[in-house]
Description:
The chain is an alpha/beta fold. Helices cover 51% and strands 10% of the residues. A hairpin with a 2-residue loop joins strand 1 and strand 2.
Amino acid sequence: MSKSAEQRFLLQLEQLTGANDFRRWFLGKVAVRVDAEQLTIGVGSPFLLTWMQKRFRRQTAAAAQAVLGPSAVVLFSVEAFPVADREEAMPVTVPFSTATPDRTQGFPKSLGSGESAPTSEQSSPAAAPAKQGRRFKRLSDFVPGGLNELPLLAAAQVGQSPGGRYNPLFLYGNHGCGKTHLLEGIYCEVRRRHPTLKTVYLTAEAFTNYFTQALRGHSLPGLRERFRTCDVLLVDDVDFLDGKTATQEEFLHTFDQLARNGRQVVVSSDRHPRLLERISSELATRFISGLTCRVQVPDVDGRLEILERKTRELQIAVKPEALRHVAGKFDRNVAELLGALNCLATQHELTGRPVGMTAARSVLCELERDCMQMIGLPDIERAVCEFFRVSSKDLKSAKRTRSISQPRMLAMFLMRKHTRAAYSEIGDHFGGRNHATVISAEKRVRDWLAGGETVRVATETWPMSEVVAVIEQRLAG
């Protein structure tokens, strides 16, 4: 069978970068797509994007030109996709094929089918034999880090008793915080405890592709047979359905039929269901009818535990003070954290010596600068206005109504928390208010957070802590 353009690109790239660098940075860690003369390399985080552009720009360009011709263009992009680990390979999906008359071909196979298909992680020519499926993560490997005990507990209970108390289970949070890990862990746990159940795991993008192909191929009955008769449905990145009306309707009917029959549904998203603005209200209501859990970046102790586990797994020597430095600096998501550790692992392989604090600072200084989050007063103002659906003019006006004063005080609080702006500077930003007003606003919001106060957002009542978390998530975006 002839190799695809993506496979030929990876073969060329392995020759140009060398086997060690290829395994460290590309094998199972990137997604490669070819569209005409454009080749896109998907990586796990923004700082990895910058790092790999700088380090491998020449080699990737040369490999792309060798495969696609002299006019080939290489682009790097940030994409969220699960990275294979060492666990037992699990069957996931079978690629859609229009060459077969089977109307159900191309849809996810049931659990225990014994079939496994190549995924983006396995497209590399240096990957394991074709029979090996994607390797799913386990719940036992998930580090809650002091902030994710509830989503981990919910995932464990769903794995133990699918279709029970937490149905549906909705997991949301920033990219790279562990949502996919939890979904994969549920998949593994269901398979281990309930091997006879028909379980399907896929992304919302894959669901959309299956639905689109079924429409074109007049094979909707086959699609519905696959999805609406499963016992457990796990859908990652459901926010991909934003604005896709027909796909949402199909997913809604699938969801309803599964729910009526007591089947388990678990979905993940980068936002709370109520913030999925282009998702139908009917579907958003279904999402919040069970248990909704926010998955957060682990605290510093949790991040340190993740690093320690990973260093043992990779068998690299990194001194404790260097690990603490990484845990303290890379706090936006776990993907960035592990990317930084990969840099230290490369340093260890190059020198053969344990990586200490000095070496860690030297190796990671550029990455720290590249992924530094620059938030200004206008960014916070914009995020608050978008969340509360108020105008910037109202926020800066003299209005004292609760619907305006609360967002204004919250904006002042966040500006103090996330910028180095002085009280007087923040006051000037809000129409020339004095520094005492900003100090008072900051204290009020702290009291609200400590006292568990709620705030009215449109027709909903939200805990103030949740409002702050969601706005900060948007700022981290």
